[in-house]
Amino acid sequence: MVDQAQLKAAEKKLDQQLRKIRKLTGSDSERDRDAARKRRLRAAGREVIIPPVADPERRARLEANDEEWLAYYCGDLFWYDFTGQQRAMIEAIRHAIRYGGDQSLAASRGEGKTKLFERMLLKHSLSGEVTFAVLFAATGSAAQDSLQSIRDTIETNDKLYDDYPEVCVPVRALENTPNRAHYQTVTGKRIDNGKPYEQVPSRFAWCGHEIVFPRVPGSPSKGAIIATRGLDAAVRGLNKNSRRVQVAGIDDPDTEETVRSEDQAHKLEERIDRAIAGLGGQQRSVARVMLSTIQRRECVSAWYTDPSKKPSWKGKRFRFLLKKPDREDLWDEYVQLRQLNHQTTDEEGNFTDPNARGAHNFYLENREAMDAGAEVANPHRFDAQELPDGSQLEVSALQRYYNEVARIGPEAVASEYDNDPPEETGPIESGITAHRIQRQVNGYPRRVVPPGCTVVTQGIDVRKIALHYVVRAWRPGATGFTIHYDVQEVRGTIRGSDEGVEHAIIRALEERKSDLESNPYTTEDGEIVPVVSTLVDAGWKTPAIYHFCKLAGKGWWPAMGFGKSNGCVKAAFNMPSKDSATRRSGQDWFLTYQREPKVWLVACNADGWKSWEHARWLTDPSQPGSMTLWGKTSGGKRLSDDEQKHFAYSKHLTAEVEVEEVVKGILQRSWKSKSDNNHYLDASYLCDVAANMAGIRLLGGTGRTAVKADSRPSLADLAKGRT
């Protein structure tokens, strides 16, 4: 290549000679000189000198291996050894580019599939294997984000700049002014044979819905196109200058609409099977690769990764958690600790210690046992951020997995991370949703008893590390107001052991009782309204609960729920045929006297009262018999601050749902568990039973066991018989 200094010197000498000629001929004017100067500046601004490839051998060697190419040129994204599912994605894209066909892979959320897809298309476009590729995203905005990501890589990646100067140098020369590409010229030596070229128009495009690579002589990627489109727009007719699409990448096709609506899902399926499939040429069909995460069993991503439904797509599904740990009980305790850290609130409902490290320390102390038997797909997937105290935010991918279980629930993790959503076909659910409960607010402040309420009750669910309690105010006709719910920490328990648990639970209950006395619930006018009845779940650590309730006195009752929803298949709920000295009947509950501790136990029909609980939330808030939460609404589509605070509570209440299905011609009802985090649900239905014991009844009762009102003993009578 001619040296730049020599060219500039020759230009200067030529300019001086021209000036002498103009003076002799009389044609040298200031205007002519200025015009000539501007022409030279414009020409200099249009011309881009393309340097040679920094290391041709390295470029050729890396292009022969996709993984090595990605690791070297995109090391900021792929800094660790590729996982099994990442290698499968790389292989699927490579196979589609070279041999055509279809491939569908369901990868874990956050596994980098979009970035991997974008860089693979870039790599094979730069090497000349792909002349026209389209990356489809669920929406147009998501598609534009992908195209911008590819642009940014070419504009800023110095390693690509060194080894692919025929693309990166002309692009950087635009200096964020895409219009310059229309009149830019390039000068240099061809990459393929080394012959020089001068001032050749690069004629490329660097804005809009696609990028066209610079047309540099000898460049393998000369004129290659990478386009992006949203699946929510028309996709037919995507061809440029009679060039047909070679590869169509489909990235996370599902939207909220296609996940919720089967009709919308089938419309998307038709777009993929017909419109996108028709983008290829006459001699070769377009190769399609779908990378997704399964949100439901009946959604587009699920259909295309199911070989029985779409065999030609060769569907594969990958999990985050390949093998479960041996000690799932320790992880259950970890999840409870993690949730407790994020559920402790102050009087205004704000988290008091969102960064508490109790769960983290528990994992560090028991890590060897908790890690045993477990296997994750990507051991690098955790946040190693160092905190001010010197500890790490997370120390393993397994911890990250269970942090997500605590944050969004096991059902969502099964879908988003393991591509194994819960079974949905068959039984019909009641229709209760967490979102509906979350938005059913009444406008009253927290802890305030609304006007017209005559009874306040409390239900408490007992666990090793926490008490979940719910407090409700009731109007006649079973119109309920959830005025308070929270977590009372059980202090003094030993992690991984039951030693001292009974005493710790009793202390926690005493603290809750003391708090009720010192910080009572009031009306808006400040009038104190006492809690008349509290039911404490005695299904676990029963003697401790009996002991506390006996000492607590009037209004505190141990309670047990019986039914299939509580896992009591053999010990089903059976109402006594008649009352006796040791049994008193109520409405789907009865009292049974425990002679040894000398205490009355409230036995509840768990299935019946959970159904009654859900029915309250499904009742319009303007009608009698409805249930609402404290707080204000936003009045629009977005959740208010109060509604957002009710997320965890609402998820607990829908952790179990009642379903119906026809079995041998007979309609049967059963309970379906969606999550183990049902503690507020248990506390809530115990709160309902306590209200019924205090005289709160819905017209027609729970619809299960008919008991005359006058046959229900009064609280005063029951209190007398407890000792």
Furnish the topology, listing elements before pairings.
Blueprint: H1 4-25, H2 30-46, E1 47-49, H3 56-63, H4 66-73, H5 84-99, E2 102-106, H6 113-126, E3 132-137, H7 140-156, H8 158-163, H9 165-173, E4 185-189, E5 196-201, E6 210-212, E7 225-230, E8 247-251, H10 256-260, H11 262-276, E9 287-292, H12 300-304, E10 316-317, E11 321-323, H13 328-341, H14 358-365, H15 367-371, E12 375-376, H16 397-408, H17 410-416, E13 428-429, H18 434-438, E14 448-449, E15 455-462, E16 466-475, E17 479-489, H19 501-518, E18 522-523, E19 533-537, H20 542-552, E20 556-562, E21 583-585, E22 589-594, E23 599-605, H21 606-617, E24 627-629, H22 641-645, H23 647-653, E25 656-663, E26 666-673, H24 679-693, H25 715-720
Parallel strand pairs: 1-4, 2-9, 2-10, 3-7, 3-8, 8-9, 14-18, 15-19, 17-24, 19-20, 20-23
Antiparallel strand pairs: 4-5, 6-7, 11-12, 13-25, 15-16, 16-17, 21-22, 22-23, 25-26
Helix pairs in contact: 5-6, 6-7, 13-14, 13-16, 16-17, 19-20, 21-24
Explain what this protein looks like in three dimensions:
The protein folds into four domains: 46 residues; 262 residues, P-loop containing nucleotide triphosphate hydrolases (Rossmann fold, 3-Layer(aba) Sandwich), CATH 3.40.50; 104 residues, no CATH class; 288 residues, no CATH class. Helix 13 packs across helix 16. By secondary structure, it is an alpha/beta fold. The longest helix has 22 residues. The chain is elongated and about 130 Å long. 37% of the residues lie in helices and 19% in strands. The C terminus is likely disordered. 40% of the residues are buried. The strands form six sheets. A nine-stranded mixed beta sheet has the order 21-22-23-20-19-15-16-17-24. The protein has a seven-stranded mixed beta sheet with strand order 6-7-3-8-9-2-10.
